[in-house]
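Workshop exercise sheet. Pairs work together: one partner reads the sequence aloud, the other fills in the structure field after running the prediction. Swap roles for the next sheet.
Pair: D.N. / O.F.
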Amino acid sequence: MTVQPAPAPRAPEDTGVFPLPLAAAVHRTFPEGPARIDDAFSARHFADLTTLYGVEHRPEVAARGTGNTFAAMAAALLADLSAGPVDAELVVVAHTTPDLDCRLAAVTALSVLVPGDPQVLTVADCGTAAPFVALELAGRYVRRQGYRSAAVFVLDQATLPYETGRDLAGDAGVALLFSADGAAGELAVRRASGVGPDDVPGLAPALLDGLGYDPDGPLVLGPGLAADSGPVGHTGRRLRAPAGLPASATLTELVAEARRAPHEGRLALLDHDPETGELSACLVRRDI
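Structure field:
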């Protein structure tokens, strides 16, 4: 008999629903950036780093191109979120790949760029579950502290002078803004740990049902899922998140689908990371 893993127990009031409505969501891909990592400090840093972990150092990658730091990408996304200053009492930055330059930090930059001295946090080392973990974490802080606004940035960059084992397509990011007067919809997240690939079709419906998803509605499958590995019983459209963006792929497709089908009531996101065993689901309701 196969025993399927179950979602972690939740407090009665914790339904996975983000405590603030969604106010805005933006996505951007970035061309080759101006930041270089072939200076003497960076060369020593990457040589030491790769030696420590037994990974081949590829200095030619750093020498032949430039990239975008998470700080620069976050600043651009922040400007896209609003024509004026973005009011966010909490800022969470999530990523899967390391930042381009270890001497800079997106949270430090955003603590200056976002007015009002916001609380800033980083989520890393979570694989493709990074955006879902970031949303869960942000929701808990908002609920605990009584914040009336929050912003979540999910970032990818592909200029790394060593082999990562991942297919990296380029530099891109998504930013979500939540506020008490937001009118773009409601978002909810649930996750399950210790999930093997064979468990996904059977466990995914329970995870999504807990969010109130519509089996006939559109479903975004993340890069960790094959086209035929979605939940049993889903009959609606299946959308593929773009490849090569391990952190921002599912939210990228969320923003794209919102533009393609602005009147669609509900959209579900699903992703699985076979390395960490995390199965993550998100539901966006615009019919509230």
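Discussion prompt: The chain has two domains: 22-36+61-179, 186-285. What would you look at next?
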